[in-house]
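Appendix B. Raw example, untouched.
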Amino acid sequence: MIFLVAPVLAVCAQPPLPQDHFYRLSVGAPDTPLAEPRFKGTLEVGRFVADGLTAGRPIVYGMADRPYELHEYHYHFWTEPPPTMLRDQLVDYLRAAKVTTMVVTPEMRVEPDYVLAGRIKRLEKINGSPPRAVVELELALRRTANDELLFLGTYGVEAKAGADTVAAAVAAFNDALTEIYAKFTADISGL
């Protein structure tokens, strides 16, 4: 009888499934906020646009030796979809930089004086030597009164990660986004 039960128990004993891990972004604060807002009025920052893998919650990665091939992790996720998370981080950054009188999202349902649109072109962890995070964003600023495009720019940054782990890549993503948001803020402040 014991000989019959032992194989059944061995079949039932499965290794535990890997645990899901969730990551959030936290962009650094501006070095020097503006003394006076560059733009008077309300700036609305819309949800960013992203294609394919980049729009989903699984973290996307590639291999340094295969630059045209992408994968997504099965147990490593963003806390929110990147189009929302990057938008929210930019809203916080622009508020802290004091670029305009007011920075809002479309959910506030106010008539904005300016609209900022963003597109995520790349948001990838790169495995290899050196491990790094790659972020590329297209950002556009429009005045709503006359639909004038005031600014359109593409920003790309590769930030080295301290190790070949997802947690180290997330820290590198934060560094890359802080750099991009600082460059963008400087560019529109000079208009």
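End of appendix B.
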